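Final report, closing paragraph on structural work. Over the funding period we assembled a curated collection of sequence-structure pairs, and we close with a single example.
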Amino acid sequence: MKRYILVADIHSNLPALEAIMEDAQSLHPDGCISLGDQVNLGPCPRQVMDMLYAADAICLQGNHERYVLGVLDGDPAYDGANFDPVRFTASELTRRDVTLPELVSMPPVTFCHSLPENDHFPIYLPERSVPYLRERTKDDHPLIICGHGHDATYYSLPGLQIYSLSSCGCMNAGVAGVVSYMVLYLEEDAAVLRRRDVRFDCTRVRKLFEQSRLREMTPVMARIACMQMMENREYIVRFTRFAAELARETGHSSITQDVMAAADARFHWPDGKTTAEFWR
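Its predicted structure, as stored:
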């Protein structure tokens, strides 16, 4: 029986990945598989990729690697101020780092980021996912292990099972200072998943943000990501939706720097501080 370490959605959170890799040593795994979104949002894309390379990990492409490729290609879709973290990430990596396979098959398992045909499918929304999954062709991929949803979700439908793992670096509804990963026990006709929870020093996350060019480039987006990684609570989607709505109200086609500043001033920050005060 083979034993694999599974990680998903690290999002450049180096302290979380270090804690996982240290804990996993005692398991003597046969390999490590990272289910996409290794990078972006956090301050350490280069260090995260180097650690995964050192572990000979199989890394898959997620939607955030695709965003980085879009920036490298000059795609204007990523011109908004909310994509500043992507531009930072692109400046830290090479095209090779983010040109990755979209899926890997190890029967009976298919590994991908969200679904084999869609790296951004909302696997975290059962009311949208179940009707779609009932209609898709299931014969090619009867057992899928993926990430993307940031919180663990399991689907069981006729002829199809999907395990969507929680984020290792940017969970939406977790415990502060705790990172979760999975151990996969794999045979030809059997797959067993076991969760492991590991503590990590989330105060190091803030220190790495403070030392990073990311905070200098985009203090508001860096603040949002830092808060989510330290607290394991969802802030990123809430803030970007708030800023996007403000952009529409003020007649902007994207989130400009002016819109970002206005959103910072109006957003309901849980600590009551402006971003400038947060980083002081």
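The chain has two domains: 2-199, 203-279. The domain at 2-199 is CATH 3.60.21.10 (Purple Acid Phosphatase; chain A, domain 2). We thank the funder for supporting this effort.
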